[in-house]
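Reviewer comment 2.1 asked that we show a complete input and output for one of the modelled complexes. We chose the adenosine-5'-triphosphate case, as it is the one discussed in the main text.
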Amino acid sequence: MRFTHIALQNFKPYEDAELDLRDGVTVIHGVNGSGKSSLLEACFFALYGSKALDGTLEDVVTTGEDDAEITLEFVHAGGQYRIDRRVRVSGDRATTAKCVLEGPDETIEGARNVRKAVASLLRMDNEAFVNCAYVQQGEVNKLINATPAQRQDMIDGLLQLGKLETYRERAGDARLGVEDVLTSKRSVLEDVESQIEAKEDENLHSRLNALESELSEVTSKIERYEDQRDKARQTLEAAQSTLDEHEEKRERLAEVESAIDELKAKIADDETTRDRLTERIRELDENVDELDDDIEAAVSKTDLDEASDDALAAARETLDDREAEIREELSEARTKAQALTTQADRLKERAEDLESRAKEKRESAEEDEAAAGDAAADLDELRETQADIESSLASIDETFEDAPVDRGDAADLLAERRDTLSETRESLAETETELKNARERLAEARELRDAGKCPECGQPVDGSPHVDAIAEREAAVESLEANCESLESKVESCRSAVEAAKQLEEAESRAASLEDRLSLAEERIADREETVESRRDAAETKREEATELEADAEEKREAAATQADRAATVKETVTALESDLEALSDRRDDLDRVESLLDDREAAIDDRDRLREKRETLAEVNDERREHLQDRRDRRAELREAVDEDAVEDARSRKQKAESYIGQVESDVLPDLREKRDDLQSKIGGVKADLERLSELRERREELAERVDALQSLHDEVTDLESTYGDLRAELRQRNVEILERMLNETFDLVYGNDAYSRIRLDGEYGLTVFQKDGTALQPEQLSGGERALFNLSLRCAIYRLLAEGIDGAAPLPPLILDEPTVFLDDGHVSRLVDLVEEMQRRGVKQILIVSHDDELVGAADDLVRVEKNPTTNRSSVERTDAPDLQSALADD
Ligand SMILES: Nc1ncnc2c1ncn2[C@@H]1O[C@H](COP(=O)(O)OP(=O)(O)OP(=O)(O)O)[C@@H](O)[C@H]1O
Ligand SMILES: [Zn+2]
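Response of the prediction step:
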């Protein structure tokens, strides 16, 4: 197995690192803390995950980062493999977010699964890996200080000898299991044997014979008694049938007698009924006579010729015709009365409607009249207002007769005069300023002159060439003062002119508003005049309309009265016709009475005839009954003779005797015998079952004996197997111990080469002893630090070789990894270490990874890898230094 590539991201000090690993010796170098050990740890972690860590999972993630990723590629047994792991930190916990092993045949996911797969590929778990292939920094004493038992476990584990122990234990378990079964089967067999003995002691066959002969005796007794009993039953039955026969005859006699009684009673009954019928017939005859009288009286009330159905029908037809006529007339009269009443009502309604409309018109006329009155009053007021406004306007117009402008131009005049006033004021102000300046200049000139200087230029002067200047300035002042005065008076006159124009303007605007009011008043006057006229006209028209409507209403009322009168006349006709109908109904009632009397009479006659017939029938029936009665009496005489009392007595005593015999046999003798028989039968059944059980037990004994023999031989085999596994392991271990001891001695000689020690002994229990030349034994712990380091290296390399040779290339071992192996070594021993590395290579170790600063080891490298840490970012990087540059790289170091 060889690593081919490792890639890291945020693993411990690494930010982003990638490295191809090749065959041969790779030396990783760099200063302390640059990240060399971390690179090896990364390989180990990639293979085994958290189990490969001393610390916790979050330690592998670069402090301050959330994710770390590690990818390791390797070849193994000719296949390419790749492991990807990602660790994620969240909060203060880290978890494996991804873990995948891609192999040539399958892809495995999940940290546990990947770890198991790696352990089975390499045939070593993480512990075995550090014990064999990966010599960690500072772990010099681990194997030296271990107890022999720990060493034994470790080396047995690496050599898979532990499996033989497992098999031996399993064989042991199997042996114990077989022993358990064997013991229990044996005790069952003993139990069965003692049961057989007990059964054989019981003499089962002779007991069976005795019981069977007793049973046959009892059975024949039972048969005899049952025979006797059956005979008694026959006797009993014969007696019983004699008794039954007599009983039946007696019953029949009783029946005949009661039939005779019944017949007699019925005959008497029917005779009574016949008497009653005769009486009833007589009553009905009388009833018919009475009805005849009634019919005659009823007919006389009608105009019937005779009391017959035909005469009745004819009379009814006449009545029906008459009724039809009356009803027709009646319906006509009713319709007409209804029509007239309706007309009268309508006319009355119409008259009322017209009257109310006339009333409305009159009321409306009143309202119009009142409105006209109001308008007329308004009109008076408005005319007064009009006159007032007109006189005000006239007085304003008078004002304008003397004015410089006409009404309408006063506003313009005012504006014009105001402009003139302000212009004049401006001129005045300018002139005043000029005057002030002139006065100042005059004063200056006078001061200069008084100081004897030129008033013009201020230079001292002789004579008075500039006196003229002062006179000019005085004249200017005077003229300006005169201008001021005239302007002031002009301002005054302008101001009063403005005042006058203002008054005119005010009068003008007042006149405008008066004119507006005047035109408004005129409009309203016109409006009121129109209202007065139109409302008065309207009132007149409405009154005329009202008069017309009232006349119309009067007419309608008269027409209504006429129709009401005519309706009353027709209603009288209706009443008369209705009383005619009533009279007809009376006559119909008379006819009904005659008819019902005729019906009664017919019914009475029918009744009488029916009763007569019934009376006849009864007489016939009674005659028949009397004949039957005679028959029954004859039969009774016969039956009385047939009953024989002596025979009955004899049968009775025979029956009694038979009954008592049967009772005794059935209730005492037979049950006893049967019980005895059942008891015997069940005893025989018991003995037979015992015999069967005995033969079963004998069969079971055979089976058990066979099974016990088989278990015994199985037990012997399993015991053999158990001891074979134990022997085999001891033998193999002994062989391995011998080889390991040889290899250890070879390696130790190679790396130490000191004359003080003669050899190292590894005993069967993996105890280690070092012998000095003089034969004194030393424990490895007693060696010096450097010696222990060399001893440890020798032991590791020996184990590695043992495995590599023992496994015979079937599963090539992982690379040999040494972290700082030179720490305790002096220069001479470093050279020997180089020899050891070369020797290992010669012996077929394909890939060796060494972390070291040592120049000599660096020199022995096929490949040199340099690890550096950026001092500012504190992140490590890794770089391969190719062989040609090796020397120069070393020179810099
Ligand atoms: N989780 C982490 N995040 C960042 N840096 C870390 C982390 N864990 C360790 N380191 C840093 O990595 C460095 C340790 O690296 P390592 O032990 O590989 O150094 P080394 O080159 O083997 O040193 P030496 O020669 O002293 O053995 C230390 O500087 C440490 O601060
Ligand atoms: Zn280190």
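The first strand starts at residue 2 and ends at 9. We note this here for comparison with the apo prediction described in Section 3.2.
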